[in-house]
Amino acid sequence: MFLRQVASFAKFTPGRMGKSTIVQGEFLFAGLNSFESGQEHAPHAHEGQDKLYLILEGNGMVQVGDQTERLSAGDAAFAPSGIVHSIRNPGPERLVVMAVLGPPPVK
After folding, report:
1. Mean pLDDT for each 10-residue chunk of the chain (107 residues)?
2. CA 43/CA 107 separation, integer angstroms
3. Of 42, 43, 53, 72, which residue has the fewest beta carbons closer than 10 angstroms?
4. In a domain, 37, yes or no
């Protein structure tokens, strides 16, 4: 399977972060988290699941553990299993983030 222009699969919603699945296999999941200006994915953790955020478009404030950094297109952040993480779009442009999780979330 090959995908081109992955950010074009982004789905934006006015009230909260948009989500779209890109691929899901037995051992890996990749999806897009799409944020309008000011939207966020609140701090949370995944037990038994690692997460990689890859910024595709825009800028985001990403928290991993007790560190927070502003990341832009081409930057990434890794949140190991059990570590609190979050992401927020400070605006003004839209933010598109690929979230890669292993193992995949339970359907």
Report:
1. 94 95 96 98 95 98 98 98 98 97 87
2. 22
3. 42
4. yes
Does a structural domain hold residue 1? no
The candidate with the shortest Cα–Cα distance to 38, out of 95, 90, 87, is: 90
State how many domains the chain has: 1
Dump the DSSP string for 21-83: EEEE-SS-EEEEEEE-TT-EEEEE--TT-EEEEEEEESEEEEEETTEEEEEETT-EEEE-TT-
Identify the pLDDT of residue 105: 87
Q: What is the residue range of 94's domain?
A: 16-102
At 47, which CATH number?
Answer: 2.60.120.10
For the entire predicted model, the pTM comes to: 0.94
